[in-house]
Amino acid sequence: MSNVYASTHPLVAHKLSRLRDKRTEPKKFRELVREIAALLAYEATADLAVTPREIETPLAKMTGTELQEKIGLVPILRAGLGMVEGIWGLMPSAEVWHIGLYRDEHTLRPVEYYNKLPLEPTVSVCLILDPMLATGGSATATADVLKRWGVKKIKFVGLIGAPEGVAAMQQAHPDIPLYLAAIDDHLNERAYIVPGLGDAGDRQFGTG
Asked: Known catalytic residue: 20?
């Protein structure tokens, strides 16, 4: 799993444990999602291309650095929305494009219901955002959409992955690295990650 990066950072582990706790209320849950997303994005963007930029400090002129690549955030609706604010705090100029998918409860396959991407890509790097990489269906479908759009560099950023979802992404898109806070044990009969944290969308928006 050379392209799978499960964070070993103590801050991520601490915040993830609080996120998993069933007693964590929606307000705190949303805060933790934002914070963990920012920490994971920090790791996922370590290889972004940069270009030199001449600047002047109060004391001297120097050559600084400026991001060269234009970044797009693609949250998978609806649970992925909670991750955007945390990453926007680091990259306020990032564009946000929404792709709406829901999982058919009978087939467990993703169904696309919303996509407003323009005809041509406006970014060079896309981060797919989804708290849970369960079956991998939504993530692989989103990656399919972005590749058809013409994006060459794609990364997945999520909170918790199941081995089944990781395997599905690696099989369908071996070129896309996966950045996760943790990889859990398995999926149950309803395709929920175990031990997981429940339904990330319901817990964020208080609809459980």
From this structure: no
